[in-house]
Amino acid sequence: MEKITISTETITLGQFLKLAGVVGSGVEAKLLIQSGDVFVNGEVDYRRGKKLHHQDIVSFNHQKFMVIYEG
Q1: SS3 content of the chain, % helix, strand, coil (to 5)
Q2: Alpha-carbon span 24 to 42, nearest angstrom
Q3: Which residues of the chain have pLDDT under 70?
Q4: Chain-centre distance of CA 38, in angstroms?
Q5: Count helices and strands in the chain by DSSP H and E runs
Q6: Which 3 state secondary structure label does DSSP give 39?
Q7: CA distances from 40 to 33, 51 (A)
Q8: b (16+ CB within 10 A) / e for 16-28
Q9: Distance of alpha carbon 48 from its chain centroid, rounded?
Q10: CA 55 from centroid of its chain's CA atoms
Q11: Which of 54, 60, 69, 70 gives the lowest tally of CB atoms within 10 Å of its CB?
């Protein structure tokens, strides 16, 4: 599992996917999320604006990423 550090208390799912390098743009993030292939803490989430917090886990295509907040 790869740990991705954020500098704010929350980050949106779309922004997180870009930060993790899964997608290159907001449009790509939107399409990927709408496809139903992105999981947050083990459940499919279709909301690009979903707020992620410290230690949330995002998974896609057998990859897992953990949100790490270091304020």
Answers
A1: 25, 35, 40
A2: 23
A3: none
A4: 8
A5: 2, 7
A6: strand
A7: 11, 10
A8: bbbeeebbeeeee
A9: 9
A10: 11
A11: 70
Provide the residue ranges of all domains of the chain, joining segments of one domain with +. 2-69
d(CA 71, CA 64): 22
Task: Give the pLDDT score at 3.
Answer: 98
Q: What is the pTM of this model?
A: 0.93
Homologous superfamily of 2-69: RNA-binding S4 domain (3.10.290.10)
Reading the block at residue 67, the tokens are 């949100």
- Confidence at residue 71, expressed as pLDDT on a 0 to 100 scale: 75
